[in-house]
Amino acid sequence: MQSAVTPYKNDSSKKEQVTTMFNAIAYRYDFMNNLLSLGIHKSWRRKTVRLLRPLKPQLILDVATGTADFAIEAMKLSPVKITGVDISEGMLNLGKVKVSKRNLDKHIELMLADSENLPFESNSFDAITIGFGVRNFEHLEKGLAEMYRVLKPGGMIAILEFSKPKNFPIKQLYNFYFKRITPLAGKIFSKDSSAYTYLPESVQAFPDSD
Questions:
Q1: 179 alpha-carbon distance from chain centroid
Q2: Considering the chain, what percentage of its residues have pLDDT values greater than 90?
Q3: Domains present along the chain, CATH in parentheses
Q4: Are strands 108-112 and 59-63 parallel, antiparallel or unpaired?
């Protein structure tokens, strides 16, 4: 069900389409996140990182790192190193600029890699983060299994992802905003309405919390 939802309606794989989509919207990605969430996504990341604090992780992997917001936030945990991986070179290039501006090059390494085929040894990381990325896996279970494989015993995987409200009237407001406002904003500001039509469609298709 999840793999059937793609950004564009063509014959290429979901992974190829997701890569194309993020390369296309990379220049507007941070702006659109702030606009569409009214900046709330920043507090969601802070809360997720706080969940990892008792673990005191020294080696952290940030999957689907994008423009490295999660990796930069995770520096508050004082790790030795954070490795961020993504399939979009356009997103990574912007992330590298942000990392460099904060003088975090020695602590954060960003690299092009497939989250469903991670280029790391098993049991390599104390903690793994991923923000708004698992919906984009072509094969959800494979991506989750790969993260589990490279996680050290006793480590923690922190997944930040959208869900679907169930209570009135939040459910109705949420659906209206996601299905009407989000694609319109994407068409106006990112010039790629398909990317922001895919967002609500992928959330609807993604399994709930259980």
A1: 20
A2: 62
A3: 40-160 (3.40.50.150)
A4: unpaired
Of the candidates 55, 54, 104, the residue with the CA atom closest to the CA atom of residue 83 = 104
Question: For residues 39 and 30, is the Cβ–Cβ distance under 8 A?
Answer: no
Determine if the pTM surpasses 0.70. yes
Q: What's the chain's Rg over C-alpha atoms?
A: 17
Residue 49 CA to its chain's centroid (Å): 14
Write the DSSP assignment of 80-100 as a string of letters.
SEEEEEES-HHHHHHHHHHHH
End-to-end CA distance of the chain: 16
CA distance 3 to 15: 9
Q: Which residues contact 33 (CB under 8 A, 6 or more apart)?
A: 41
CB neighbour list of residue 95: distance below 8 Å, 6 or more residues apart: 65, 66, 67, 68, 71, 84, 86, 110
